[in-house]
Structures are given as structure tokens and as C-alpha cells.
Amino acid sequence: MNQGPTDLRDFIGEVESGGLLEQVPQPVSPDLEVARILAAKDGTPVLFRSVEGHPGYRVVGGIGSDRRYYALALGVSPDRLLFRLREALASPVPPPVDSGAPWMEVEEPAVDLLRVPFLRHWPGDGGYYATASVVFLHVPGNGYENVSFHRLLRLDSTHLVARLVEGRGAHTAWTRSKGDVPVAIAIGLPPHILLAASMSPPEGVFEMHLAQAMAPTPLVDAPLTGLLVPAAAEIVLEGRMTHNMAPEGPFVDLTGTMDIVRQQPVVEIDRIYHRRDPIYQALLPGMREHRLLMGMPREPTICDEVSKECRCLNVHVTPGGASWLHAVVQIEKRSPDDGIAAGIAAFRGHQSLKHVVVVDNDVDIFSPEDVEWAVATRFQADRDLRVMSDMPSSSLDPSAHHRPGVRSTGAKMILDATVPWDTPTGPAHPEAFRRVIGTSSRTSLLF
User: Catalytic residue numbers?
Assistant: First the structure.
């Protein structure tokens, strides 16, 4: 098991010692200014040492805005992250339960969410949001705890409104419960816990067991709700998800487009805890960190499904597809139909996928130029294109067909950009497709 940084402060120290951390010493406003700086520095961790109107708080953002930061946290190379996540999904590990945690150092004498530096990220936002907020709750009837990200719009000093995606764990718990649902909300977590909270394990598997499989993740019982919460958190809010409703949104979503206003459940906060000198964690909507936390956890499930059809070497859910709608799948081709079969399997592994490009092992799937080269030299639309109509789609795709209360539908496309086989055992003229100049061989050819 990786023994790297196990809390946010340790991780900030690591990126700082590596010269990767930007720091802003002067006071900044939570109203658009923090977000403006994070957007300008997208891809870089930024620590704000002073936030106007919120004495005692610091704000950090961008800690997961590049694959190399997750790789640093998990002790692997960026191109091996998929396999680290896959190992965790295959072998969850129960974490230890401690008797106390640093986030219990301070219990606020009165609940006042206005003291916590929620941010307004974009001019069209519906208000001040927490976006790196991880919600812990029990699912009635199943006896297990659910962990997931939810954006939280601050309504006043004691109330939030939570966006719940229909049919997922938190929404299921809320709809099954006739009364309030106790919740604990953790803010300020290290990358491995953020990844675990973004993953979709089989029903009954606690996401924190995935976190423990990646790095030490001790838990503690939250004092009011009894929910198991990471000891590593900076801030913990305890309260109840009620059946009262309030408008939530507008909000800039994953695709960089504005999500609609919906009636969503109100959360009443009963207690606020935090570390001394707490660090509030920001996650800039629609930018790199948001996309990576959404898309990267889908890569192991895609790989698992593709591996049932052929040998899958790697998967990249690409940033150009909002890290949700497009993927590149790398395979070792063993039969003429492996490319299309791999694409169909990828859609099983992540139903929101819209377009899949399948490539061979000599193509760098993290290089858009390399992938486009494969399409240009190995793909023919009348032979290697597969289009499927009226398929399950994503609510995040504004071009899909959307109907209230029904899963969105749309068309899907596979581009088989592997070397075409015109014999049962391979191409008749493989030399025509051999890469002479490419990302790995260019230097050796020239020199």
C-alpha cells in the first residue's frame, strides 16, 4: 500500500516541496476572485492564505487538476493510475476506526455557515457553493454507508440545498426515508479520498474501503450522527437532509455549460467542526479538477468491460470530451473484430460515453495528436465506423434527447482506429502501418 500523504496538509506540503504550489498571500474575495485566480492557474494547486470576511480560514484549490498530482499521492506514474484504481475496486480494505480526529479540535458554539468561505465561482451562479463537499449518509434498508460528491448551495446561516442526481445512492436514501436523513459533510480531503468518493463500487461496498486500499484512511464516528467520516478532513458539517425543497442553480456543470434550476432537498446543519487554522477546499466547476474527478474513476470500469472482449492495455476518458463523453481505448488486437467489440464494451463500462476511439499499443492515448494520427492513417468511415441510435446517454450532454423523469438518450459512435486486418491473422501488409516517426521513436530516427 502507498504510504504517501494521508491528509490534505501533508499533500500540500509535498506539492510545495516539489515547487508545484502557487501561493496568494494577499486577502482575496470569495465572490468570484478566488475562482478567477484558480481559472487562470488551472492545472496548478493554489493556496490562498487570507480570505476576505473569513478570518482564520485558508482556501486551497486545484490539488487534483492534473493526473500527476494523483500519481504523486498514490505513488504511481500518471499512465498507471487506472490500474491503481482497478486494484482498489478489486480488493477493498476496511479502514481502522480511531477515537478522535484533528477536525474535532474546534466545535463552533453556534452554527453559522456564513463564516465558512463558500465561493461564488462564475457570474451566473445561483449563489455561494461548496463544491469539494463529500456527503456521508446511510442508505435505508441496505445497512451500508454511501459516500458521494454533492454541490451544496448555501441558503443562509444554517441551511444548504443539495443537488441529488436521480437514481444514485444519496437520492435513493433520501427517497426511501420518510423523515430527515442524517448527513455528515466532509470538506478538505486528500486526493485518494476524493478519488474514492468519485468511484462507483458495487452496492454494499463502502467507498472508504477503496480509499484505504489506496492509502491509509482512518475513520472516526461523527459525534452527532454516528456516521464514519475520514479523520483527515479539515471541516465537518453534521445535519439532516430534509424533505423541504428549494431552488438549486444555476450552476456551471462539467461540460462548461450552465445547468438548470431544480427544486432540490434542503439540508439543515446542526453542528460545525474544524481543525485549528482550517483549510477550505475549493473545486472549480467545469475546469480540470472537476473533469478529472468525474472521468478518471470511470476508466477502470471501462477497462474491466473491454477486458472481457480482448486485451485492454489502457483507457483515457479525455478532457476534450468534458472527461465524461469521450474515451480512447488502447487494446492489443488479436482478431479482426476486436476494435468494434472493444468500443461496444466501453459503453457498458460507462453508459454516459458518447464517442469511443479504439487504438493499438503504439499510440499514446494521452496525446490528442497521436490519437488523431491513428484516425487519419488507420480508419476508414465506411469500414471502421459504428453508429448506434437511441442509446442511454448523459444528462450532461445538451445535444442528447432529454425527457423529465426518463434517462436521456442519444446516438453513440465507435471509431476503430486500430490497424485494419484483411486476413484472419493480421494485415496482409503490416509494413504500411508501421510507425517510423512517432512520439517514442522520433528522436531515435533523427539521431
Answer: 253
